[in-house]
């Protein structure tokens, strides 16, 4: 159309495109086929296929769930699968396989090529996934950009835990731009410098096993043990321990105690060291009795010209000379205003092991950055070690749970100090000492508190999810050890004599019966109304006996040497029991538990000095009860608690007794001379 005066109307003027025209689907498919035909690396070919899946995801979503489409694609790929079955897989795609891939990449009827591309990506992942790690390793240190492949996969956590994972063993969503071993990097790659580092492949072997214990160390009681400005509103730098010689002694003792507790991974808190002290701590991983990994906390320092203030975490690996380093990128603003100056792109370095563990370091508030946590989940971080210095760990629980649920991560946050009174911070309560994330925990995270502000260590046992607090100021004195007093009441002496024929020297083998050998501790004490027994209430999220009243106990460890050792060890781990105050009376015959497939030996003990050296393992135990035997013997009657004796276990619901626990109790009561279910007055050893 021409306007008056012969000038072209705007709609008639040819438009010069401001961007290059997009390729048509046919052109994209032709380019993909050409790339696949000449590419021998299966990882690169897989990346090409996933790019098409990402670009055409609406079509893929529409067709992927159609059974007829799936049947057609399966039939199309059968020649290629037959070819793969006829020869061993190698690290490079041979010409025949590449030709088969190209021949499959074509539309058939109503089936879009992108649906075929998705199935081919799965095919390459299934048959050549074993070679992807070598491809990434050749590129190490590898920094992906948006759309580049990143490694996924890793161990199935079910192989290192007795507990059932609370999230699927693989990722929750089956995304279109990923397979089991590879995912395309998203926009987060522009927010963080993500580096995949394979330098630990040869040294960090068996990073997480069934016997792995992770320990966090907590050397300081309060803020007064640090160098801080008098005015809390002023920037703080450098924050460090005020008394370095005392701090060095604290840390050495705590690392020593952590290793003695079986820890192979030890994490120290934020700002609990100086740079020199962090480097000196490398000596621990050089020792035969040292940990495999020691995160030597973090420290404030300045470098560069002009000097830049930094907060750096340092970790040492056995057999690896250079430290693992992470710079904090999220400074604290309160209650301590941290005067550090992060610069440039924040870096997240992922240390990949041969077993597929993705080890990452973070520092305190780095873990409160939602974008950073999203990035950690995207890169499959499954071992996250975090030095922290925070007045509360509550804000961290959601972030850690996200990592546990999405990446099946094991997370350890070491917090310090215990007392945040002073420095302008209100002290409503002491800070939790540690926060652990574990795929088997019902809430996926658990905080560990301490009974006081004294230094100590918190431990997480990977296999069982067991948590413990070990205070360094609560060690049993030599005079108290092995000094059980023999002033047992007559009923306990008679019971020990009755049990003597049953005392075995070792755990029953079970023969050909496929059962797991275990032991429980039936611990008796003298109460206001006569003998009473210790019962624990299991947490409601456990796989075995959730919410039930049971004896402390568990599965035999190879080093136990017998049911007595197993029962005492489990009682110590579950409720912190001081076993030095327990005298073993004997055992009952082993009980078969068909439901849980245990062969359980009830070990009977007596104590007149019941004591505890550690905290209750909150991952397994909700509470401890001392229940009079006469209450258990008369549990089928209307309960009439003794008003004169409030400490009689009346707060526990005996209808929650575990089946094996109830059987053992009835047997024990019969051996002591009372019939289960008989009246209270008929109970011969009830005292008034």
Describe the fold and architecture.
Residues 515-651 form the Nudix hydrolase domain. It is a single chain. This protein is of the alpha+beta class. It folds into three domains: 25-138, no CATH class; 187-301 and 308-471, Carbon-nitrogen hydrolase (Nitrilase/N-carbamoyl-D-aminoacid amidohydrolase), CATH 3.60.110.10; 490-682, Nucleoside Triphosphate Pyrophosphohydrolase (Alpha-Beta Complex). Helices cover 26% and strands 21% of the residues. Strands 19, 20, 21, 22, 23, 24, 25 and 26 form an eight-stranded mixed β-sheet that branches. A seven-stranded mixed β-sheet has the order 5-11-12-13-14-15-16. The protein starts with a strand and ends in a 17-residue tail after the last helix.
Q: How would you summarize the topology of this molecule?
A:
Elements: E1 2-3, E2 7-8, H1 25-37, H2 42-55, H3 57-64, H4 67-85, H5 95-104, H6 113-128, H7 132-138, E3 149-151, E4 182-184, E5 193-197, E6 213-218, H8 244-260, E7 265-267, H9 275-280, H10 283-286, E8 293-303, E9 308-317, E10 320-327, E11 347-352, E12 358-361, H11 370-378, E13 383-387, H12 396-407, E14 410-414, E15 434-437, E16 445-448, E17 456-461, E18 466-471, H13 490-499, E19 516-527, E20 530-538, E21 549-550, E22 553-555, H14 563-575, E23 583-587, E24 591-593, E25 598-606, E26 621-628, H15 629-633, H16 659-671
Parallel strand pairs: 5-11, 6-7, 7-8, 12-13, 13-14, 19-25
Antiparallel strand pairs: 1-2, 3-4, 6-17, 8-9, 9-10, 11-12, 14-15, 15-16, 17-18, 19-20, 19-22, 20-21, 20-26, 23-25, 24-25
Helix pairs in contact: 1-2, 1-5, 2-6, 4-5, 4-6, 11-12
Pfam families: CN_hydrolase (PF00795), NUDIX (PF00293)
Domain Nudix hydrolase: 515-651
Keywords: Hydrolase, Magnesium, Manganese, Metal-binding, Plasmid
């Amino acid at each position: 159309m021409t306007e008056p005066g012969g000038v072209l109307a705007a709609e008639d003027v040819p438009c010069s495109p401001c961007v290059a025209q997009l390729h048509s689907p046919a052109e994209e498919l032709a380019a993909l086929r050409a790339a696949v035909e000449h590419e021998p690396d299966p990882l690169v070919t897989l990346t090409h296929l996933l790019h098409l899946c990402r670009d055409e995801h609406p079509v893929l979503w529409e067709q992927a769930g159609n059974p007829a489409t799936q049947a057609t694609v399966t039939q199309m790929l059968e020649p290629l699968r037959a070819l793969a079955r006829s020869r061993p897989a190698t690290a490079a795609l041979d010409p025949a396989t590449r030709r088969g891939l190209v021949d499959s990449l074509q539309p058939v009827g109503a089936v879009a090529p992108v649906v075929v591309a998705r199935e081919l990506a799965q095919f390459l992942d299934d048959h050549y996934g074993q070679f992807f790690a070598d491809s990434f390793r050749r590129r190490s240190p590898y920094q992906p950009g948006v759309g580049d492949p990143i490694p996924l996969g890793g161990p199935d956590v079910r192989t290192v835990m007795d507990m059932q994972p609370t999230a699927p063993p693989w990722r929750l969503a089956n995304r279109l731009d990923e397979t089991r071993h590879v995912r395309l990097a998203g926009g987060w790659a522009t927010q963080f410098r993500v580096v995949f580092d394979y330098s630990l492949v040869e040294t960090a072997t068996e990073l997480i096993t069934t016997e792995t214990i992770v320990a966090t160390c907590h050397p300081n009681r309060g803020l007064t043990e640090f160098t801080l400005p008098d005015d809390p509103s002023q920037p703080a730098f450098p924050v460090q321990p005020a008394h370095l010689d005392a701090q060095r002694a604290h840390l050495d003792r705590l690392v020593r105690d952590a290793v003695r507790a079986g820890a192979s991974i030890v994490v120290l808190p934020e700002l609990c060291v100086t740079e020199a002290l962090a480097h000196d701590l490398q000596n621990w991983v050089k020792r035969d009795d040292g940990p495999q990994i020691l995160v030597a906390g973090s420290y404030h320092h300045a470098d560069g010209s002009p000097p830049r203030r930094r907060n750096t975490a340092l970790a040492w690996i056995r057999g690896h000379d250079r430290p693992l380093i992470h710079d904090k990128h999220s400074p604290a603003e309160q209650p301590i205003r941290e005067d550090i100056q992060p610069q440039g792109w924040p870096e997240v370095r992922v240390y990949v092991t041969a077993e597929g563990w993705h080890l990452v370091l973070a520092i305190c508030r780095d873990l409160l950055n939602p974008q950073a946590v999203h990035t950690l989940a995207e890169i499959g971080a499954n071992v996250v070690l975090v030095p922290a210095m925070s007045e509360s760990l509550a804000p961290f629980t959601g972030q850690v749970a996200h990592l546990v649920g999405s990446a099946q991560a094991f997370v350890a946050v070491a917090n310090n100090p215990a007392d945040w009174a002073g420095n302008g911070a209100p002290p409503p309560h002491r800070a939790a000492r540690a926060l652990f994330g574990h795929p088997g925990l019902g809430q996926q995270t658990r905080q560990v508190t301490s009974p006081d502000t004294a230094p100590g260590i918190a431990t997480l046992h990977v296999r069982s999810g067991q948590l413990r607090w070990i205070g360094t100021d609560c060690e049993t004195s030599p005079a108290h050890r092995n000094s059980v007093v023999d002033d047992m009441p007559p009923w306990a002496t008679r019971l020990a004599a009755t049990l003597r024929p049953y005392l075995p020297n070792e755990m029953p083998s079970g023969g050909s019966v496929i059962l797991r050998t275990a032991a429980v501790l039936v611990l008796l004490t003298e109460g206001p109304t006569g003998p009473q027994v210790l019962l624990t209430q299991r947490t409601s999220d456990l796989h075995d006996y959730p919410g039930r009243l049971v004896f402390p106990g568990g599965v035999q460890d190879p080093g136990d040497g017998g049911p007595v050792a197993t029962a005492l060890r489990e009682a110590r781990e579950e409720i912190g029991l001081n076993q030095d105050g327990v005298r073993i009376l004997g055992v009952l015959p082993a009980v078969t538990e068909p439901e849980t497939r245990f062969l359980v030996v009830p070990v009977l003990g007596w104590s007149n000095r019941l004591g505890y050296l550690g905290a209750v393992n909150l991952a397994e135990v909700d509470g401890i009860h001392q229940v009079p035997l006469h209450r258990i013997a008369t549990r089928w009657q209307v309960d009439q608690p003794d008003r004169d004796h409030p400490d009689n276990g009346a707060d526990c619901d005996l209808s929650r007794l575990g089946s094996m626990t109830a059987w053992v109790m009835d047997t024990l009561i019969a051996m002591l001379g009372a019939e289960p279910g008989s009246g209270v007055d008929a109970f011969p050893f009830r005292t008034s």
